[in-house]
Amino acid sequence: MTDLNKSSFQREKSTSDRVLTPHHSVHALEIQVTELDRQKLLRKIDFHILPFISLLYLLSFLDRANIGNARIAGMAVDAKLTGLRYNIAAVFFIPYALFEVPSNICLKLFRPSIWIPSIMIAWGMIMTLMCLCNTYHSLIIARIFLGLAEAGLFPGITFYLSLWYRRRDVAKRIAIFFSAATPFHLSIKTIFGLRYGIEKMEGIGGLHGWQWIFCLEGIATVLVAFVSYYFMHDFPETATFLTSEERAVIIAMLREDTQGLATDYKSKFVWQAMSDYKTYVQIGIYMGLLIPVYAISLFTPTIINKLGFSSANAQLLTIPPFAAGCIATIAVGIYSDKLNLRGPFVIAGALVSLIGYIVLYTQSSSGVSYFGAILAAVGVFPTIAVDLAWAGSAAGGDTCKGVVLALVIGLGNLGGICSSFIYITPPRFHIGHGTIMGWLSLSVLLSLFAMWDYNRLNKRNIAICQRDGIDDKQQENYRDVGNDSPLFR
């Protein structure tokens, strides 16, 4: 782990009160800062950043996963989704995975307040027009374009957070915005009953209930996207809600956290990220975790329906697994940051989820199997935020971090194709549950390797610095070497 209390801050005798001298702020300021001041500043940033990006991701996940609700609301019959046709809708994940690296580069080159709302308008319009997809072929075409347009949101927001928060502070924030994918099942279904109510719009305007799901949710995305142009903040350096002193403090904190590595775009950082073996270790971990997440999101209504519950009740019974997963995600994110640990939380969550899938695989009782579904969600949902914070921490410099996160999320999302083709043997779904158990086991093994390897690399760099007399005063000499800097932890 990185000792983030060392570096460019000029120290006084007190360990809690420091004079911060930002190296690249617009004003040469010396500001008395305590840990309490820093936490107060972070909470102010949270208030202005997290609610809005959580709403954006809620809409993203809602638009991506609503096909599962539309399926049991009548789309499977009307669009003739027989055999594996519904599963082939997973073609969404191919353009979704391929466009994430270019999208994160565009976010770095353009302003987030331009790039993210623009891709939101694109996918919102596609989602709205999906209400006209009453054939299998039109559905597949629409899902391809939806994947292309929506690709940049999740990796973009994850990268965006890393530009505002230190590595030790980011897991909790990722957990909060990622958990927006679970509360929408709770808040919208329970409080508003939106999708349940939309299904009752059957025949209005000549559309089926499942077509109204696509239409109304797509319109909501477009409206929020237009608002985003005006309310999304770009970077700490330009944030209007911060005072000049606060901007100087947060810039100094971020510079300390990056250990002096470059924040500008250079193509060599892209290739460094793509050729680093640690990137592919994290891809393996993330894929093993994301396959269960997508399976839960796409097939929980179907699984519960096959346990003997009606379609309407199956929709409502998806609430407890997602609600429990939401609570666990935020709690684990908080404690992961508090303890500055990533690997142990990933492993523990994967093991809890593995137990849930063992229950689903071995038990035939609907009540016990339903408990297994809740356990599976509680275990795996929290691991996503922690693992993304872990992957970002292992990349040096802004560009490298953005590319690594895009690769991890992009290639990891190809696992969504796997999720879509393994739940084909109702009512017990042994193939699906067994496959996911294997992926969770892979994540545990790769996480154990990553913990050992990162510890080894940190010890090696410490030894190099001690041998060659390298300290933080020489950060400028290693600014453009990225992960290869002996000062990088």
Automatic annotation (TrEMBL):
Q: Which residues cross the membrane?
A: 45-62, 82-102, 114-137, 143-163, 175-198, 210-232, 283-304, 316-336, 343-362, 368-390, 402-424, 436-454
Q: Name one GO molecular function term.
A: transmembrane transporter activity
Q: Which GO terms describe its cellular component?
A: membrane
A Pfam family it matches: MFS_1
- UniProt keyword annotation of DNA damage present: no
UniProt keyword terms in alphabetical order: Membrane, Transmembrane, Transmembrane helix, Transport
Which region ranges are annotated with the description Disordered? 1-20
Q: Please indicate which superkingdom the organism of origin belongs to.
A: Eukaryota
What InterPro entries would the database entry show?
A: MFS (IPR011701), MFS_trans_sf (IPR036259)
Task: List the membrane topology term(s).
Answer: Multi-pass membrane protein
The cellular location(s) given in this protein's UniProt record come to: Membrane
User: What SUPFAM superfamilies does the record point to?
Assistant: MFS general substrate transporter
Name by which UniProt lists this protein: Major facilitator superfamily (MFS) profile domain-containing protein
